Amino acid sequence: YWVMRWFLIMILTGSLVPVGMAGAVEKDTGTEIATYFGYEDCIVLKNDKVRVVLTGHGGRVLEYSFQGENAIFLDPSQQGWQYKPGEPTVELTGGRLDIGPENIIPAHPRLWFGLWKGEVTGPRTARLVSQPDEATGVQLTSEFCLDEQSSQLRVTQYIRNVSEEEKNWCHWSRTFATGGGMVFVPLSRERRFPRGYIMYGPGSVMQFHPEDPAIGERDGFLEIKSTPQYPKLGMDSYEGWFAYLGKNNLLWVKRYPVYPDRSYNEMAGLTLSIWYYRDEMCELEPIGPRESIEPGAEVSFTEQWWLLPHDYPRPGQSVDLDHLKALVIQETGPVR
């Protein structure tokens, strides 16, 4: 009785609103339910300048926009695409939280493509919950909280062990940004890679001393200025943030915790990966440390995102990196 009464009170007050109950979402809470990109029952979080759209299809972010300009890349051919076991799949675009390490973890289409349960949990806050996944032995929960006024979006992934044995996975963010932009990664003194990054390719080769005119070091930053020779790159920075400047004049800043004294179980011990594919898309991938998750236990990892107005440089011009760092500090707080 008391459980049912509590549940009804939570729904009626808008504190817990399952997807599909659009009438129960109050407009002044900064949340609503809408159809977007061919998907019904999307959760929308918004303030005066920023809008976030979430879908349970693959547990993804479909929109993260500032004043109507979406920073997320969506392949138009995938509009409304839904996963059907046994049928061919696609490389789903949008933004999502995943687990790794990618070369060890078994395939997990139920997490990658399957239907997640979405619910509004408060003003400008929501969560997406995956199905339990037998392949990896975990269930994932993604929680999103948009600031009342700024573009700050707090994104937390929970990894819960639903198996009967210890699991050793790590957080791995996979967010497709619009393509053709520039990446700025602050470099650490304690770096392992001679050039501040490794390049994957050709084939299974990982180049630890790559030469690429699209990538260079300047004023304490690793700078990716255009399409590299091979798209996948890995970094060992322990600064806990980086920025992506899109041609839409938005600087996408991601901040996340780093742990110099912990083990990172991706093959090259990366804390960050960038997948820069031509001018089409750029995947922004903070990576968490190795987690030892006992049966029934749960771990979490939190990223904080911002979209900040910043002019994309004209041909032949460079970004003022001192100004960029000052902007990041001003809008997001002190950096290491």
SSE layout:
Blueprint: H1 2-12, E1 17-18, E2 31-36, E3 39-46, E4 50-55, E5 60-66, E6 69-70, E7 95-100, H2 109-112, E8 117-122, E9 125-129, E10 138-146, E11 153-161, E12 170-178, E13 182-186, E14 197-200, E15 206-207, E16 215-218, E17 221-224, E18 232-235, E19 241-245, E20 250-255, E21 272-277, E22 281-286, E23 298-309, H3 321-332
Antiparallel strand pairs: 1-8, 2-3, 3-4, 4-5, 5-6, 7-12, 8-9, 9-10, 10-11, 11-23, 12-22, 13-17, 13-19, 14-15, 14-18, 16-17, 18-21, 19-20, 20-23, 21-22
Please explain how this structure is put together:
The chain is mainly β and 336 residues long. The chain is built from three helices and 23 strands. The strands form three sheets. An eleven-stranded antiparallel β-sheet has the order 1-8-9-10-11-23-20-19-13-17-16. The longest helix has 12 residues, at 321-332. The radius of gyration is 20 Å and the shape is globular. Mean pLDDT is 92; it is low at 1-17 and 20-24.
